[in-house]
Amino acid sequence: MSHTTEVVRLHVNGDSVEVGVPAHFTLVEALRYGLGLTGTKQGCDKGDCGACTVLVDGRPTLSCILPVQEAEDRQVTTVEGLATPEAVHPLQDEFDRHGAAQCGFCTPGILCSAAALLDGNPEPTRDEIREALSGNLCRCTGYTKIFVAVEAAAARRRGR
Ligand code: FES
Ligand code: FES
After folding, report:
1. Lowest mean pLDDT among 77-86, 98-107, 123-132, 145-154
2. What is the pTM of this model?
3. Do residues 160 and 124 lie in contact, with contact meaning Cβ atoms separated by under 8 Å?
């Protein structure tokens, strides 16, 4: 079966890139198979699990159900873009400290959802964290370590 290839212009983690991808690709497919950014995971591939969550213009977005064309000329941030050259994101450090990266497959999406939360709400309550992560399914040991890590990262960002 032949596919029409299309060149799309994406802004990912601060870089502007043009990439040729099959026209039916979603954003997660363009990221993983077009750009080699495999940090974003392709889980259920139908909008149910949150593993593919990235930030589009700062908002958590399910990249498995977003046609890649709809991401053109918008700012996309993947898990690879959360850290700076100087340091990992406080969330990444606190996930490490608290053992919150469990199976790891869901972690990139959880980190992106949590990063957007902290950008808009520096001092979220446990319920606000729970709500912000409600679209990111974790089926291993539960959410407690994840919530504690997000709270620790928020506190660190506030300078405590
Ligand atoms: S892979 Fe996108 S929601 Fe599951
Ligand atoms: S972190 Fe992946 S199932 Fe819990």
Report:
1. 98-107
2. 0.95
3. no
